[in-house]
Every structure is written in C-alpha cells, then in structure tokens.
Amino acid sequence: MNDEQLLRYSRHVFLEDIDVAGQKKLLTSHALVIGAGGLGSAAAPYLAAAGVGKITLVDHDKVDLTNLQRQIMHTQASIGQNKVASGKSFLHRLNPGVEVDAIETKADDKLLDRLLTTVNIVLDCTDNFATRQMINRLCVKHQVPLVSGSALRFDGQISVFDPRNKTSPCYACIFSPVEQFEEVSCASMGIFSPLVGIIGAMQAAQALQVLIGFGEPLVGRMLLWNARNTQIDEIRISRNPECLVCGQGQ
Q: What is the CATH number of the domain that holds 215?
C-alpha cells in the first residue's frame, strides 16, 4: 500500500479486524456484481469505496426514468445509457484507483463459466428466479462464494452461500430449481426506494467480510428485512443432502 492508499483507507486500517493485512486483501480482490439496478447500485459503490481492487459489472439493461427512484448509481443524465456504462462512470468518480470492467450483456452460462475462474466473490443483484438459479449453480461448480440479495415491495432478504464450506447450503437447497415460481417484478409490484439500498449495502458488507475473513458472515442464515414494520428476522438454513445442485441428488 502506498501513502495515498493508507490515507484513503485509514478508517479501515484502524479496525483490528481489518488492519493493513485485510485492506491489502481487498486491494487484490475481484468482485463480480451481476445486476446494476437497485441492489447493484448500493452494493457496487461500497465495494469501490472500500477498495476492492477490481469490480466487474454485468447487466444488459439501459437506464430508464423509472429506475431513478431507487437506483442511485444512475442519474437523470444517464437515461438511455447502458447501466454498466453509467455504473462504471459513477464508480470511477468515486474511487479512481479501482478497476471497473463493464460487460453489457445478459449473464449466461458461457459468460459466467469464463468470469468465475477469475473472481473471488459474486454478488447476485438480479431480479428473477431463473437467473439466480443459474448463478448459484455456477458458483457451486467453480467453488466461488455467493452473496445473494433480493427486494420487492417492502420486503428484502439476504444470505451468503459459500461452496468452499462443506456445511454451507446453496441457493437451491432453499429454493428448488424444479419448483415453479411466479415471476414478479418491481414494475408490476412496486418497491420502497431505500429497501434496495439497505439490502445492497448489506450485500457489500457481507462480501467484504468474506473477502477479508473476519466475523460471522450469513452462511447458513438468512436475514429477512421488513421495511414496513422496521423488523429484522433471522432464519437458520441447512444444507440439503439431496439438493440437485450441491448435494447427492445432483
């Protein structure tokens, strides 16, 4: 770390759980953020501000006026731009020392098979069940920890799935990939603006914990945030030995 980095990240360095060694880990880490909308707009800036050395943003969508109620990485001037291009510009202004790779495409098996050989952690900031299942399956395949978050209306949830940990469940242990779920979206159901910020910031916090290796990340636990009642609940989740993705049923 040079003098400028020591000053920029000094408030991290003061924390015994992080210190210089932990900050160095962040500076050499590569985080993949899939989804540059509401959740990604909160998670990616905190990763950049914290000094994660490389951030790859993946999203196929463009910025729309309706996004600006909650997607704080984008502005009025970003309307019509690719979300990853808008996000990259925002993150560079926030921290010029972070490398940002913007990939304007919809995540698929081929892309993730390539990217997951290079990243240290994945943040799932997407908004549909099929994509979450694909991300989970490939994270299990490549043994890359996954921070999964979701938010709709006034309800959010977050958990960490770490396939390197033999006791950790995966996303499919909880939500079977063969079950049929009705897809719902913010466009049809609505969403409380700060909710994506709360969950996205939590995703960033969990990612930093996993990358540095301190505390107790949400492995085997899921937090449920109810913004209407300002209530947080925690449920314990276990690995399913018959899981079609990480268990004997695969």
A: 3.40.50.720
